[in-house]
Amino acid sequence: MTNIRDLAQMAGVSVTTVSRVLNQHPYVSEEKRKAVLEAIKVSNYHKNINAVHLSKGKTQLMGVVIPFSDHSYFAMLLKGIAKQALEHNYKLVLFQTEYIESKEMEALQMLKQKQIDSLIICSRSCDISIIEEHLQFGPIVLCEDNPRSKISSTFVNHYKIFSDALDYLYQKGHRQIGYCIGRRSGTNSQNRELAYQHFHKKYRLPYNSDYIIDQCLYFEDGERVITRIKEMDTPPSALLVTSDQVAAGIVISCQNQQLSIPDDIAIIGFDNEPIAKMLNITTIEIPLVEMGGNLFQQALNRALTNREISVKLIERGTV
Amino acid sequence: MTNIRDLAQMAGVSVTTVSRVLNQHPYVSEEKRKAVLEAIKVSNYHKNINAVHLSKGKTQLMGVVIPFSDHSYFAMLLKGIAKQALEHNYKLVLFQTEYIESKEMEALQMLKQKQIDSLIICSRSCDISIIEEHLQFGPIVLCEDNPRSKISSTFVNHYKIFSDALDYLYQKGHRQIGYCIGRRSGTNSQNRELAYQHFHKKYRLPYNSDYIIDQCLYFEDGERVITRIKEMDTPPSALLVTSDQVAAGIVISCQNQQLSIPDDIAIIGFDNEPIAKMLNITTIEIPLVEMGGNLFQQALNRALTNREISVKLIERGTV
DNA sequence: TTGTAAGCGTTATCAC
DNA sequence: GTGATAACGCTTACAA
């Protein structure tokens, strides 16, 4: 492997001059530039980027933490991040954590060790205080509403969205409303649960924890939801489903099992994915790709910013 | 940022000893080890991994090229790769190319520049000769059947699979068979097209290029397929659909448009995703996660291996 | 416009 | 067991 010193020797110049040519800096005579370029060509030279990284203390690598790479919500966030990354000449290092805390720690570890310049955590498992401790090693951004934290974030107000959606269903006459969620433990999930509790208090409705169905991540989970609902003595008349994929699975399951939508059960999905349009599912549009782009921008800066993204109810045929 | 030299000074030992402790090498007295460990603790020291990379000439980073991160086929391959990566203490650098050649070139560039140790290309855009040229910089593996090439690969025999599936449909009485595909230009796609042509020759069936429908990637593309088929004077009686997602979209579309499956049109999907089971779709099971794992293994070695993975027809209700 | 030389933070070789 | 010291390949003051 030929290096910058070999090049300097071949071209009969100093390493500085070679470096200048390599990084298109000014103040190099055309003559020497050509000599260097020639040397590069004949030697089939390529920069060792690790040396650059060590020297500069930067890697142009950004870490992205997601629990599952085959889940549409995260895939869309990732799409937005990847697009911005490309434009800004950053590469992405992917951490697929499956919500295992130790895998998330590995990402933080890499930030500490300077292998990545900054970190986007799309869904967090480990404690917020641990994240904060790592802030000294580089920008970290989250995709959740964490007031009074020192961490930048892009988020939607899940409390408000859930409240509004529940109100909407209430206006439509629903009194027994359940919801489906991926996991119950995240910040976003907890905000939703809070909204759910407050809703029941506000309208003095009986609170039924059976109506909260978790582990709803993929299309096929919709089947389980319907099976479970059919077993209930007093099933909910409406369901908030925090993923259009799952909502779609529910709709299909209902077809298979002769349940009528929205008469037997009303459905509101989330995200407004194409599948929701196709199946005519009422949903709450969340601009995930845009959010991904915003997360990237925040990770690029050191500034502390918390940006709320607004959403839109798309009324279709499942309510 | 404290470094290994500071540590040596603090602990009153040499950098070598510190390095030994850091890398758990033998031949360090318990006494000095403790001193070093103590220094590490009080100084909040962390290795600069870039220096390690430079020194070792390796990064423990593996590149993965996929066209779309929100496509289930690639998401599953990625899942398998990520799992192995974790076990072998490798991190993944993701290149989302959208089939744009220049983005694939960036991945090759990083291999050249030693920022990644090896590269897995799940779906290739650029010429095979370009890949071969880059083989000198590190292992590159492909996910396609490229006989007589010097490139390692894990693949399924798309020619044979397609031939068998077409024969199967022929036995079931179908004479007008079409197929849906993502793009027509990849090696895998061309093998399938070849099988399709040979099938028609073998049974002396009229060949109708309208029966090949491309750009079929996502669930929602199923709708377009059905729209198109309904416009045909002599529509196919069966469809090979190279993705269960699209097959599922087709099945739903048929429901919406009062087409009966398999009477009006028979469907065979690919991959055996959960959605196929749920919608009772006959499909060809491809162990994508396992293939991903195998790709990783090959990328880890320098040996040239070409491994064919076998598949299985899962008979359900759409044929 | 050009070059010298001092980093960047490790690992590896070799002598003691 | 231990420690100098030379790589690794690049960037960047600073000097000329």
Automatic annotation (TrEMBL), chains A, B:
InterPro entries: HTH_LacI, LacI/GalR-like_sensor, Lambda_DNA-bd_dom_sf, Peripla_BP_I. Residues 2-56 form the HTH lacI-type domain. It holds the Pfam family Peripla_BP_3. The keyword DNA-binding applies. Keywords: DNA-binding, Transcription, Transcription regulation. GO terms for molecular function: DNA-binding transcription factor activity; transcription cis-regulatory region binding. PANTHER family: CATABOLITE CONTROL PROTEIN B, LACI-RELATED TRANSCRIPTIONAL REPRESSOR. This is LacI family DNA-binding transcriptional regulator. It comes from Heyndrickxia ginsengihumi.
